[in-house]
Design a protein that fits this description.
Structural class of chain B: mainly alpha
Radius of gyration of chain C: 20 Å
Order of helices and strands of chain B: EEEHHHHHHHHHHEHHEEHEHHHHHHHH
CATH superfamily of the largest domain in chain C: Cupredoxins -  blue copper proteins
Largest interface: A-B, 74 and 90 residues
Number of domains of chain B: 1
Number of strands of chain B: 7
Number of helices of chain C: 2
Shape of chain B: globular
Radius of gyration of chain B: 23 Å
Helix content of chain B: 55-70%
Chains: A alpha+beta (466), B mainly alpha (479), C alpha/beta (130)
Strand content of chain C: 35-45%
Strand order of the largest sheet of chain C: 1-3-6
Shape of chain C: elongated
Largest sheet of chain C: 3 strands, mixed
Structural class of chain C: alpha/beta
Number of strands of chain C: 8
Distance between the termini of chain C: 65 Å
Oligomer: heterotrimer
Number of helices of chain B: 21
Largest sheet of chain B: 3 strands, antiparallel
CATH class of the largest domain in chain C: Mainly Beta
Distance between the termini of chain B: 45 Å
């Protein structure tokens, strides 16, 4: 009896300790039990108001803005890409409305000094609205967008002065892109004809920002009592769905950025917001529902084209990205064949790549979620692709066989299993293997069939008492 | 010696590949220092204790490592990169069940039974109930091992899951050793035990008696009952007469209890136990099939490029995971055995043998899959070791991801080694496995069918199957 | 003799079971004695930075250890103080030493895109005047 009691105690104790340890481990599975509640995206209502603003100076403070609810958005340092800002504009107030034809945004933020003159080491104030081209774009896009191209409307104080008041400080050269560019990228320095105080831009990924051919966004800013007030105006929809963001549906996302020239902000040095959901109220009576649905489907059709094709359709990017695998064969042989790979947890796309021995190929890899790598067995090639940046390697495939490429940057728990195959044809290794097996098969078959010994003897039990 | 295998085998067939005689033995224990060591009470307990230290670190890294990335966790990397690979590539194929000799996992239970670590106490604690006869086979281990692999997407990447698995084995070991006698847990339950048992038939070492005549005269059989110098066989065997490695855990107690120094630690040609017709059964046949299925499934899920399957395996959605386990189970329990059943049936048909049951053919011939399966596993393990082996250096220096640098290797980055040669190495291993499989396949045919002419005919379908399986594995690994 | 054996057995058992736990705790506490704080980096959905709020007195030298206990690459920076740890890979850590000169609230951020909610991955270091 006593024995049984002690056994029961041992069993209960064992189970108890184990359960406690598992519980402790579960609580601490991410290092500490502290949790975090994800903050949902903020909503900005774009109401319908039958009001048409001509962007006169008074329109910035027009009566209509008193009626529209203000959304205060907290801004953060843009710190994902270098160079970083030193200062921060902590809050921007945003309003938006539409009149059935045009959409208006108004951004208001505190800035104790208006910086309107750009010099070599003096920078101007500015602000921007970014709208993903893809209405269904997931939130996982940074300011420049990498899962969907973004349409960026950037207002700059110096351009505002020049456009609305004809004041020029210094001849404006339109170069402020300081990102790591792809090799041999053609980088134009232009003095564009000023059609607006707002630059209408497109980008997908860092280093791909492109001025659109037709600048169709208007905007005007006024600095008053220590605050900038900037309004943007554009038609809700346009004919060019490839290049202009469309406000045809009910939902859209936007994000905002502010530059403070005082604090040396320019380019990537800016304060940014997270994505904000736009709730676009429909017109009071017009536009039947199925017409809207039609708009949506036409949108979807557009987004079926891959991002590279979309980018290639942008005029000035074409030189940089024009060499796709299709038109390669027509051109010179020495140009590498570009293989575009997208990586997301935990798969490459394409995951099986077939090339011919001796080809010159370029792996051009883009990540769709977090930092990924690509290490190619046998060739020792290692590529790293941070979100929004392209990783590239060009090499000659001189070793035949099937080689595994695997992720080289820890990207999640299944990271060691993130794998793809590069098949360099002809796969001589496998052929050799097949030959070896074939010859062995024939030999064994022959050996067995040709054996004629029919000796009957006492069998000895192999492997035991011998 | 059983009836079935007392048929004709000529001298040539007793040689592996016609070269190495299968009855060649070298007794390691004939070297005095080794014999002295094997007979000491502190051996192998001292290794178990050292191993225990290591496993405590592994368990700790699972619980307080507080660390969610498997590839930088001591537990996950040590168990799945080092231990599993060493087990598959070295311990089992060469050293039989040496892992069981030094395994610390059941030791808590065993110590509780014995209430001694080094000493001898043959009055074992616990309830000491006999393990049910019906369960005295590999079925529980088969099922448990298969179930374990359902969770491979968790065990191999999440530190806490690895803790749960190892801790679960320890806890189960304690519970069962409190209820059942001796090492019933190791024999019939431990999921790692089953495949070691089966595959150690391929091993190049064995523990056997030197001279059966001495044992025959020895009435007391101290190797079973135990004496002052050691315990009666904890693995519930009759060391004086056992013939195959399957259930011998190499605990070395029989070396200590034998008053005549009649135990031998033999080095032998690989695979001799495959031909020993004793205790063969469907359970072991299915173990074979399951192991093959897991090798395929693991490769496809872990080293294949298919992301969808990976999402199934890691349980992203319950439905996907259920799809995976259904596929996996059907493949292992039905598809592979079905293929083999057809082969056996064709083999029997072609051979023309009438008086042999299909069941016998099926079971006997299944043993020739062991070299094949082992080669597939070794080849698979290379695919783990070469790319990811360098993690071991990091985690040895920094086991809890706390920024330690114990041995100065913490800053070695992930460096794949020799992965360009991975596929050729895998091909070579598969080829070796194929040759050995075919060799034993023929010997098993001879043993099963008796008559050479009959066996020759019966062998051809088996040869075709083995060839196809090898080509399939080759295609999977590098085609 | 048998007592000595028992003692040795007990010591060996303790060393091999409790030993690693005690050794780890002692070694780790000696290594972290002079840390101001340890910050764990996880993606927001896994718990974000822990802690997300730190308070230190002005003039004190701050020594932070940032441990990436996650499965993806993170970073750590306080842009307003010019403090940057760069990329911290999964399973790795960074030690940062600095002395803020002005009181105030300083945001610290993850600098590597790590999740859909990367922009929410931040915390506040408050430097208070004496």
């Amino acid at each position: 009896m006593n024995n049984k009691v002690s056994i029961a105690i041992v069993i209960l104790l064992t189970l108890g300790v184990f359960t406690w340890l598992i519980n402790y481990g579960w609580q601490n599975r991410y290092g500490s039990p502290e949790t975090y509640e994800i903050i949902a995206s903020e909503e900005l209502t774009v109401g319908y108001y039958a009001e048409d603003l001509a962007l006169k100076e008074t329109d910035v403070f027009a009566q209509i803005w008193q009626n529209i609810p203000i959304l205060k958005i907290v801004l953060k340092h843009q710190i994902t890409e270098r160079p970083w800002p030193k200062g921060l504009t902590p809050v921007v107030q945003v309003q938006a409305f539409h009149n059935g034809k045009d959409i208006y945004f108004k951004m208001t933020w505190e800035d104790d000094h208006a910086d309107t003159i750009a010099l070599i080491d003096t920078f101007v104030d500015g602000c921007a609205v970014a709208i993903p081209m893809d209405t269904e774009a997931p939130l996982r896009s940074i300011m420049m967008g990498f899962s969907s191209p973004v349409n960026i409307w950037q207002w700059q104080a110096n351009k505002d002065m020049q456009y609305w008041e004809g004041k020029t400080g210094i001849e404006d050269l339109d170069v402020d892109f300081v990102y790591p560019f792809e090799e041999k990228e053609i980088f134009s320095v232009t003095v564009p004809e000023l059609k607006s105080a707002v630059s209408d831009l497109l980008s997908q990924r860092i280093g791909s920002i492109t001025r659109k051919d037709n600048q169709i966004v208007q905007g005007r800013g006024l600095w008053r009592d220590g605050s900038w007030n900037v309004i943007f105006k554009r038609s809700l929809t346009t004919d060019n769905q490839e290049q202009d963001s469309q406000f045809s549906g009910v939902k859209q996302t936007v994000s905002f950025a502010v530059w403070d020239g005082d604090q040396d902000d320019r380019g990537s040095r800016k304060s940014i917001s997270e994505w904000v959901n736009l709730q676009i109220q429909s017109l009071p009576s017009k536009k039947p529902a199925d017409e809207q649905a039609l708009d949506n489907t036409s949108n979807i059709k557009v987004y079926k084209t891959s991002w590279i094709e979309k980018l290639c359709s942008f005029s000035s990017v074409r030189t940089a990205y024009g060499a796709t695998s299709q038109n390669q064969s027509v051109e010179t042989v020495k140009e590498p064949r570009v293989i575009n790979i997208t990586a997301k947890r935990f798969e490459y796309s394409p995951n099986r790549i077939s090339v011919k021995k001796g080809e010159l190929i370029t792996f051009r890899m883009e990540s769709l979620d977090v930092t990924h790598g690509l290490y190619l067995d046998g060739y020792g090639i290692n590529i790293k692709a941070r979100p929004g940046l392209i990783g590239k390697a060009t090499f000659v495939v001189d070793k035949p066989g099937r080689f595994t490429f695997r992720c080289s940057e820890t990207c999640g728990e299944f990271h060691p299993y993130m794998i793809g195959f590069l098949e360099v044809t002809p796969n001589t290794r496998f052929n050799l293997f097949l030959w070896a097996i074939g010859i062995a098969f024939v030999l064994m078959l022959g050996l067995v069939l040709c054996r004629n010994k029919q000796k009957k003897g006492v069998e000895t039990n192999v492997g035991t008492e011998q | 010696m059983s009836e079935q295998n007392s048929n004709n085998q000529n001298d040539n067939d007793q040689k592996m590949l016609g070269i190495i005689p299968l009855n060649w033995r070298f007794d390691l224990a004939s070297i005095p220092i080794i014999r002295w060591m094997l007979k000491q009470r502190w051996f192998p307990m001292i290794i178990i204790l050292a191993n225990m230290f290591l496993f405590m670190v592994i368990l700790m890294s699972g619980v307080i490592g507080g660390f969610s990335s498997g590839n930088y966790s001591f537990g996950v990397m040590f168990v799945w990169i080092l231990w599993w690979v060493v087990l598959m590539m070295l311990l089992v194929p060469v050293l039989s069940r040496t892992w069981c000799m030094i395994c610390p996992l059941p030791s808590f239970g065993e110590w509780l039974q014995r209430m001694k670590i080094f000493g001898v106490n043959n009055k074992l604690g616990g309830l000491n109930i006999k393990w049910p006869k019906k369960l005295s086979n590999m079925w529980i281990m088969n099922i448990l091992f298969l179930i374990t692999t359902f969770f491979s997407g968790f065990f191999t990447v999440k530190p806490l899951a690895t803790f749960f698995l190892l801790g679960g084995i320890i806890v189960l070991g304690i519970l069962l050793s409190m209820v059942f006698e001796k090492r019933s847990f190791c024999l019939y339950v431990c999921p790692v035990s089953g495949f070691q048992g089966l595959y150690s038939n391929m091993a190049m070492t064995e523990i056997r008696v030197k001279d059966p005549a001495i044992c025959a005269k020895h009435k007391k059989k101290t190797c079973v009952t135990g004496n002052k110098k050691g315990y009666g066989c904890p693995w519930l065997l009759q060391p004086h007469s056992f013939k195959r490695n399957t259930y011998c855990g190499m605990c070395l107690e029989c070396f200590k209890t034998c008053p005549f120094d009649n135990m031998a630690f033999n080095i032998r040609p690989p695979g001799t136990d495959l031909l020993v017709n004793e205790q063969r059964g469907l359970d072991e046949a299915w173990k074979n099939f399951i192991m093959l299925a897991i090798a395929v499934m693991f490769y496809v899920a872990m080293m294949g490029p298919w992301g969808t399957l990976k999402n199934w395996v890691r349980g992203e959605t319950l439905a996907g995971w259920l799809k995976f386990i259904t596929l996996h189970t059907t493949f292992g329990l039905v598809a592979i055995p079905g293929t083999f059943l057809i082969t056996s049936w064709v083999s029997k048909l072609v051979s023309g043998a009438k008086d042999i049951a299909l069941r016998t053919v099926f079971i006997n011939l299944s043993y020739c899959l062991i070299p094949m399966g082992m080669a597939a596993w070794i080849a698979f393990s290379f695919g783990f070791l070469l790319p990811n082996g360098s993690y071991i250096l990091h985690i040895l220096s920094d086991p809890f991801a706390l920024g330690w640098d114990l041995f100065g290797t913490a800053n070695i980055p992930w460096t794949p080694v020799g992965t360009g040669w991975l596929v050729p190495i895998q091909f070579a291993v598969l080829f070796g496995g194929y040759i050995i499989s075919v060799d034993f396949g023929y010997k098993l045919c001879l043993q099963t069918y008796g008559d050479t002419a009959v066996a020759k005919r019966g062998f051809i379908p088996l040869l075709v199957l083995l060839t196809l399986v090898t080509v399939a594995f080759g295609w999977l690994y590098g085609g | 003799m048998s007592i000595i054996k028992t003692v040795i057995s007990a010591i060996l058992l303790l060393v091999c079971t409790v030993g690693p736990i005690v050794a780890t705790l002692v070694y780790e506490s000696s290594r972290t004695r002079d840390l101001t704080a340890e910050i764990l980096a996880r993606t927001p959905e896994k718990g974000n930075f822990s802690p997300r709020y730190l308070k230190v007195a002005l003039g004190e030298k701050i020594k932070l250890r940032v441990r990436n206990v996650d499965t993806v690459v993170h970073g750590f920076a306080i842009p307003a103080l010019g403090v940057d740890a760069g990329e911290i890979k999964a399973g790795h850590y960074a030690i940062l030493e600095f002395t803020p000169e002005k009181p105030g609230k300083y945001d610290y951020y993850c600098t590597t895109w790590c999740s859909e909610f990367h922009l929410q991955m931040r915390g506040v270091l408050e430097v208070t005047a004496r």
